[in-house]
Amino acid sequence: MPTFIILANWTEEGIKNIKGSPDRLDAAKQAFKDAGAELKEFYMVMGQYDMVLVTEAPNGETISKLLLAIASGGAVSTETLRAFPEDEYRKVVAELK
């Protein structure tokens, strides 16, 4: 399954309700599972972003639907990156002409 890195920030509403954040994370993990995807790793980070998530999903459409549903709750905003693990990277480079 393709890997996606999600960079997320709490919105003003998300910060106001920060104590509910662990429950929202649990709900997100379940939503991923229900969609045939997986939220593999979660990190709270310091800097430009508040959270980094490493996920896998069958395709971009699935991850888009999941993140739109999560963002519509109003607690987070996200930026999504398609990630290529080392083996995929090596394959892409090896196929260059």
Give an overview in words:
The protein has 97 residues and is α+β, with helices and mostly antiparallel strands. It has one domain (3-94): Lrp/AsnC effector binding domain/regulation of amino acid metabolism (RAM) domain (Alpha-Beta Plaits, 2-Layer Sandwich). 41% of the residues lie in helices and 30% in strands. It has 4 helices and 4 strands, in the order E-H-H-E-E-H-E-H. It has a 4-stranded antiparallel sheet with strand order 2-3-1-4. Strand 2 (38-44) and strand 3 form a beta hairpin. The two termini are 26 Å apart.
Task: Describe the main β-sheet briefly.
Answer: 4 strands, antiparallel
Alpha carbon gyration radius: 15 Å
Number of domains: 1
What class, by secondary structure content?
alpha+beta
The overall pLDDT average reads 97
The number of strands is: 4
Number of helices: 4
- Separation, N- and C-terminal Cα atoms: 26 Å
The stretches of 5 or more residues where confidence is low (pLDDT under 50) are none
Global shape = elongated
Order of strands across the main sheet: 2-3-1-4
Helical content band: 40-55%
CATH superfamily: Lrp/AsnC effector binding domain/regulation of amino acid metabolism (RAM) domain
Q: What is the CATH T-level topology?
A: Alpha-Beta Plaits
Strand-residue fraction?
25-35%
Q: Can you name the CATH architecture? A: 2-Layer Sandwich
Query: So what's the CATH class?
Result: Alpha Beta
Order of helices and strands: EHHEEHEH
